[in-house]
TrEMBL record:
Domain HTH tetR-type: 2-62
Pfam families membership: TetR_C_13 (PF16925), TetR_N (PF00440)
PROSITE patterns registered for this protein in UniProt: HTH_TETR_2
Gene transcribed to yield this protein: nemR
Species assigned in the record: Methylobacterium thuringiense
UniProt keyword annotation of DNA-binding present: yes
Annotated protein name in UniProt: HTH-type transcriptional repressor NemR
Taxonomy of the source species: Bacteria, Pseudomonadati, Pseudomonadota, Alphaproteobacteria, Hyphomicrobiales
InterPro entries hit by this protein: Homeodomain-like_sf, HTH_TetR, Tet_transcr_reg_TetR-rel_C_sf, TetR_C
Record key words, sorted: DNA-binding, Transcription, Transcription regulation
Record carries keyword Ubl conjugation: no
DNA-binding positions: 25-44
Length: 190
C-alpha cells in the first residue's frame, strides 16, 4: 500500500533542499509524486504545514543519527568527524541541508517554520558543545578549545563547505574541509 504522506515528505524535502522553500509549488510536488494537487491538501492543508512536517521529520532523522554517533564513537574528535560525514550525502547528491536551505529564506518563512529551523540549529549547537566539552575533558579535543564558540564554528564550517563544495570540488573538497576541521580541534601531538 502506498504511503502518500511519506512520499510527499520525501519529494518535498528534495525540492526544498534543491530549490528552496519559495522555489517549489504544490504543482511541482504533485508532479513529483504523481498525484493531484488537491490530494496534497488532504495531507498538508498549507505549504506552512508541509514545511513544519518536513523540519520535524528531518529533525527526527538527525536525532537518530546523533544518538548513533554517541553510541558508535568513543571520543570527541571521532564524534565531530562522524557528525561532519552526515553532511557528505548532501554534497554527493547535490542537495543542501534542509534547514540551511530554509534559513536562507528566513524573512519569507512563516513564523512556525522559522522557529522550528532555529530550534534545529540550537539543538545541534548544544549537542556539539557537549561533545566538544567532553572531548576537552577526556583529552581528545585540544584543551584551548572553547566548546560554545567552537560548536558554532563546526556548524558554520560544515554548512559552508556543503554549499561551496556542491559547486566546486564535490566530496573530495568537502573531505579536505572536514580533515582541516578535525586538525583544528586535535590536541597537539607530543
Amino acid at each position: 500500500m502506498r504511503d502518500t504522506r511519506s512520499e510527499l515528505l520525501m519529494q518535498a524535502e528534495t525540492l526544498v533542499r534543491g530549490r528552496g522553500y519559495s522555489g517549489f509549488s504544490y504543482a511541482d510536488l504533485a508532479d513529483a509524486v504523481g498525484i493531484r494537487k488537491a490530494s496534497i491538501h488532504h495531507h498538508f492543508r498549507t505549504k506552512e504545514d508541509l514545511a513544519v512536517a518536513l523540519v520535524a521529520a528531518y529533525d527526527a532523522r538527525y536525532d537518530e543519527a546523533l544518538a548513533a554517533i554517541l553510541d558508535e564513537t568513543a571520543d570527541g574528535l571521532s564524534r565531530i568527524e562522524a557528525y561532519g560525514r552526515l553532511y557528505l550525502s548532501g554534497v554527493e547528491t547535490g542537495l543542501g541541508c534542509l534547514c540551511a536551505a530554509l534559513a536562507v529564506e528566513l524573512d519569507t518563512l512563516p513564523e512556525a517554520v522559522r522557529t522550528d529551523v532555529a530550534r534545529f540549529f540550537d539543538k545541534h549547537i548544544a549537542w556539539l558543545e557537549h561533545v566538544l566539552a567532553e572531548g576537552v575533558a577526556d583529552g581528545s579535543i585540544r584543551a584551548s578549545v572553547d566548546p560554545a564558540a567552537s560548536a558554532r564554528m563546526v556548524v558554520a564550517t560544515l554548512e559552508g563547505a556543503l554549499l561551496l563544495e556542491r559547486l566546486l570540488a564535490g566530496a573530495k573538497g568537502f573531505g579536505n574541509t572536514l580533515t582541516a576541521l578535525g586538525e583544528s580541534l586535535r590536541p597537539a601531538r607530543g
